[in-house]
From TrEMBL:
Keyword hit for Amino-acid biosynthesis: no
Similarity field: Belongs to the thioredoxin family.
Keyword Disulfide bond annotated: yes
Pfam families: Thioredoxin (PF00085), TPR_20 (PF14561)
Keywords: Disulfide bond, Electron transport, Redox-active center, Transport
InterPro entries cross-referenced by the UniProt entry: Thioredoxin-like_sf (IPR036249), Thioredoxin_CS (IPR017937), Thioredoxin_domain (IPR013766), TPR-like_helical_dom_sf (IPR011990)
Alphabetical list of PROSITE patterns matching this protein: THIOREDOXIN_1, THIOREDOXIN_2
Domain of life of the organism encoding this protein: Bacteria
Protein name per Swiss-Prot or TrEMBL: Tetratricopeptide repeat protein
All copies of domain Thioredoxin, residue ranges: 36-153
Amino acid sequence: MQPRNMSMSGVVDLAAVKAAGEAKQKAEQARAQSAEGGGAPAPSSLVIDVDEASFEADVLQRSAEVPVVIDFWAEWCEPCKQLSPVLERVTKQYAGRVMLAKIDVDQNQMLMQQFGVQGIPAVFAVVAGQALPLFQGAAPEEQIRGTFDQLVQVAEQRFGITGLQGVGEEAAEEAAPEPEVPEDPVLAAAQQALDSNDLPGAIQAYRNKLSDEPANVEAKVGLAMAELLQRVQGMDARQVRKDAADAPTDVAAQLKVADLDMAGGHVEDAFGRLVETVQRSSGEDREAARLRLLELFEVIGAEDARVVAARGALARALF
């Protein structure tokens, strides 16, 4: 997904006087308990996997001591695979001033809904038990650092939360920046277009890359994602779903809902709908559904188990 402008617009709620007072008390208690417990956590504990069962203890409670950044991701999401390593590296470099909680949306749909996640990767923060959106989509490391700086400043100024003490230089050294690999100028232009929400420009840039390198995986995934985003842009989700429910044989209506499902991370729903559409349609309508399904396979990747299963279902529907 393309990144939205990073902002701290949600911090207005964090300025409540009562919440600030409570958060400062919790932070002091947490620091006291940490000192009694024998010191700072290991660098590896700055990045944790969280699920619905551990969310309260690992995120809500820890947010009284340190800002907790949440990375909503999925195994099939290629932009997630680009963003997550950067978030992990930057988190370690901040040496305890932030923590990173990674949440697999496929396994934790309730948390995804509670945060109002519309697409992934999506990044939120929790400070003193209060959530705020940070950004959506893959983003450059420099931009991520800027957002982390603002988050740390808000946590300290509003709540007196200064992070985990004593994690120190070891974590920062462990996560030293890797040597930068020169960017492909065409792919860089495509990413820049996505950053500025210029979807037609991104689509053209990816097509240009594929015209020179038809097998370039990054360009294939990027093109499929950009085209998906362009199709769902401006859709009235409620009306689109109503139209599809009212006219189950309307292939165009079913394609729109499948796109919405995919953009929202509901991969199996999107695949299942398109396979069913292939089964009950014929001629040009059937071909349109088949091609759309193949396009969505590109977004996920050929090796994903859901793609493998859907390919089998498609073959059975066709033959």
